[in-house]
Write a structure and sequence with these properties.
The chain is α+β, with helices and mostly antiparallel strands and 311 residues long.
Length: 311
């Protein structure tokens, strides 16, 4: 009898221990526990630490409250300027209401993933290619708002959305490379022309200063001699003065130009032909001796007169 009583007490204690062990739960620091009693949501959400539930009557569901990093699969789309691109992104979100994330949606991770894919396709169709490549901050904000609007009712908060990569066709890449090369060449030519303009202005100012002070040119020549002598000691430089060249040029100008005849000689030259003309009649007054003619053998026949034409 005593043994049966002891066995019953031990069995009861064991059952209580097993029941209590089945109801004992531990919630981690980054989790929250949602309790369902007979399928009905309890108002109290269990915090981190040790907690007890009634086995068979209550059920504890743990919800992770950490920030979740979820990659969005690459989506193919056509931009507003009719360019085919392939864009993928990454989304960061976390659960702020454990009860809503468990009750309002079946699987909040899958729901956020599908919403991110559809929003990414919508953003691609509304944007230009230049915006996708250079203005990503604005697109990230727009994509975050599009995903966060329905996710608020699920107890999920979108922390950040980033467009990770934009893949372009090979033909578009080559076209953009040629455009960038042409733009760089244009800027290089503009910079070179601007440098030449500034250098010409400085040279003009230097020439004006040297023309005002002739000694400055001599100093410049001496500086050039010093620079050449420092680089090559075996080279001998003899500067030729520019003033000597100018003197020789001025001296050569009168010789090269033909000198005009003085006006006094013109009447003398005109009188010479008149004297030659006067001497010719004096020579013509002398009688010329007749030359002997050979005797005529036969008389020349006179030509017959032509008859007059009748009108």
């Amino acid at each position: 009898m005593v043994q049966e009583l002891v066995i019953a007490i031990v069995a009861a204690i064991s059952a209580v221990v097993l029941y209590a062990a089945a109801g004992a739960k531990v919630v981690k620091q980054y989790e929250r526990g949602v309790v369902l009693r007979l399928g009905r949501l309890r108002d109290d959400v269990r915090g981190p630490g040790f907690t007890m539930v009634l086995p068979g009557i209550e059920r504890l569901r743990k919800v992770n409250m950490q920030i979740v990093t979820m990659p969005v699969p690459a989506q193919d789309g056509i931009t507003r300027d009719n360019v085919t691109v392939r864009v993928d992104a990454v989304i960061y979100f976390k659960v702020v209401d454990a009860a809503s994330a468990l009750i309002q949606v079946e699987d909040y991770r899958f729901a956020v993933s599908q919403m991110a894919q559809t929003s990414l396709r919508s953003i691609i169709g509304k944007s230009d290619l230049d915006d996708l490549l250079s203005n990503r901050e604005k697109l990230n904000q727009g994509l975050e708002l599009m995903i966060d609007s329905p996710a608020v009712g699920w107890g999920v908060q979108i922390d950040r959305v980033e467009i990770k990569d934009v893949s372009l066709p090979e033909t578009m890449k080559r076209s953009m490379a040629r455009q960038a090369e042409a733009d760089r060449e244009r800027r290089a030519r503009v910079i070179n022309a601007d440098a030449e303009l500034q250098a010409s202005k400085k040279l003009a100012e230097a020439a004006g200063a040297m023309s005002a002070e002739p000694a400055a040119l001599q100093l410049r020549l001496l500086q050039t001699v010093v620079a050449v002598a420092a680089e090559k000691n075996s080279t001998l430089v003899l500067p030729f003065p520019v003033e000597l060249l100018r003197f020789l040029e001025r001296a050569a100008q009168p010789e090269a130009a033909p000198s005009p005849a003085p006006p006094e000689q013109a009447p003398a030259q005109q009188a010479a032909p008149q004297q030659s003309v006067q001497q010719q009649p004096a020579q013509q007054q002398r009688p010329a001796r007749p030359k002997p003619q050979p005797p005529l053998r036969s008389a020349a026949r006179s030509p017959r007169p032509k008859p007059l034409a009748r009108h």
